[in-house]
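Intended use. Records like the one below are meant for learning the mapping from a protein sequence to its folded structure. Do not use them to infer anything beyond what is encoded.
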Amino acid sequence: MLKFKKGFTLIELLVVIGILGILLAIVLIAINPARQFAQANNTARESDVNSLLNSIHQYAADNKGLLPANMPAKGAAAETIEGTGGADICASISPTYIAQLPVDPSLNLPAVGDCTVKTYNTGYTVAVDASGRVTVAAPDAQAVGATTPVISVTR
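Structure written out for the chain above:
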């Protein structure tokens, strides 16, 4: 009388492992975590740029159209919103018009809440064109697929 052993053969196990590997690869390609992170960071940048521009305009509305101190001159090149060497607008708009200055996600730094610390850098830029329109931009936007979006708002 023959005894049959219960179990899977090596071929059956290899086929199942191969199928699971193919399914895992398809799921990873569909999800694409790097693309998801880039999109999330760019969405945060869009929100931050809008918040900064809104706070600058709220300041101007309360101050008879005057822009915050230390803004770039009309028609000058864009300057980074930072404490040293750039557009140091923190004390003018925070905390009255914005609770904290947002910081670009690629910098991995907390939001700027203390304007007395002059070593902050938000990673965002601000410019004022010749007609007085203000532009806030996120120059470090991440590529999503083959294109890198331009994240800026002008009002």
